[in-house]
Design brief:
215 residues; alpha/beta; 8-stranded mixed sheet; 3-stranded antiparallel sheet; 6 helices; globular; GART; purine biosynthesis; phosphoribosylglycinamide formyltransferase activity; transferase
Amino acid sequence: MAATCNVVVLISGSGSNLQALIDSQAEGNPARICAVIANRADAFGLIRAQGAGIPTTVLDHKAFDGREAFDASLMQAIDAYMPDLVVLAGFMRILTPAFVRHYQGRLLNIHPSLLPKYKGLDTHRRALEAGDAEHGCSVHFVTEELDGGPVAIQASLPVQPGESIDGLTQRVHVAEHQIYPLAVRWFAEGRLRLAEQGAMLDGAILPASGYQIRI
């Protein structure tokens, strides 16, 4: 069995992806969440973590004089747990280049679109307004380009005729909860890595759209 992979999860809100990661820590999965850090004291994900016996920390970004100061303190808090992987799960902060470089190759994010489509916010509305036939979510390595790092895995689903934003959002959430634990487990098992050429799975360079799952 692979050695334990220590994971720190960063959150800002309800933590539904965090819950999916917690639920995935079954026997045989080397990924172990050793801490959850939030930038909001009212983030419900903190309660999820505490219920699972996972240590939590709150670092209020508003208490710091600028982004660099906050990220420097955040790195210190993360590094105290000596993580092998840092996972962004609804962490609503744009990270500084210094932070991203510090965790290069061991920093994952999930984004609610089929990257490179719809970087940034309001992805479900944008997909519906564009009349897209399919939509989905992507797990990617974080680089200095916002939502621009190499994609590890994508889940795509057909957009239903007349579908509401709420309905599409819910279905994409379900897909997120499937692919994020999978990507984290692949990393923990040593199967998923970031190389100069892009994301690698089982020693092979993945296509730009990553490993594909259709739902």
